[in-house]
Amino acid sequence: MMDFKIVHIEETDSTNRWMKDMIDQHTIEETQDPMVVVAEYQTAGRGCGTNSWESEAGKNLLCSVLIHPQKVSARTQFIITQIVSVALCQTLSQYISAPIEIKWPNDIYVGDKKICGVLIENRIHGRRIKDCIIGIGLNINQTTFRSDAPNPVSIKQITNKEVDRDEFLNTFLSLLDKACNNKNMHQDYLNRLYRREGKHPFMTKGIRFEASIVGVNDDGRLMLQDEKGVAHLFAFKEVQFII
User: Fold this and answer.
1) What is the end-to-end Cα distance of the chain in Å, rounded?
2) Element (DSSP H or E) covering residue 226
3) Is the pLDDT of residue 30 over 60?
4) Contacts for 170-176 with beta carbons within 8 Å, 24 or more apart?
5) Edge-to-edge strands of the sheet including 207-216?
6) pLDDT tens digits, 108-152
7) What is the pTM of this model?
């Protein structure tokens, strides 16, 4: 079982950046046990690509988890995304009765609203993952969102209950540890995919089309089947869900 060292800080631009700086400065030894840094506030929280993350100070879970997945090759690194996404869904399911789903590749949704964003940054040495930093921004107790993000939601907005953030984090870390040993992870990930049933609108290269989700390849590419029955593979950012 992984024994996580948890460090709390008041503010940083990005918890992923903070963790990388600690590694680069050798403040964190590579042989050290898994570690988590939790910030009360981020001045420049990031999502995937150019996306940003809005969070009111002291209200949500803003953290980065450092692990060393020795058995994961560079070629199969998408399994980390699946493990993290499923563990987050399992944790949220202990607080929310509505279905929790994964909008490919790793946004966590309740209905058509985004409750959590994940940014995973792997450092590769040869053919193996040297270390993995898992950045998580999860809306817990925030009830007002002022940015132009189209569809944020929090646990408190859904349940009208305040949630202990430390308790949530500890539950997640326990489930993350268990998920690492789940031999059916790929299927569990597929079963939780947002819009996994029926045809839905998507956009690629400015062209809108209807398609159904067929699956996700081991390398993380999404397979969609269009209205003509033709299957297409998309890497991250090559296709958009229209919500």
Assistant:
1) 39
2) strand 222-226
3) no
4) 171/91, 171/94, 172/87, 172/88, 172/91, 173/2, 173/4, 173/36, 173/65, 175/87, 175/90, 175/91, 176/2, 176/65, 176/83, 176/84, 176/87
5) 231-234, 222-226, 207-216, 200-204, 240-241
6) 999 999 999 999 999 988 888 989 999 999 999 999 888 777 799
7) 0.93
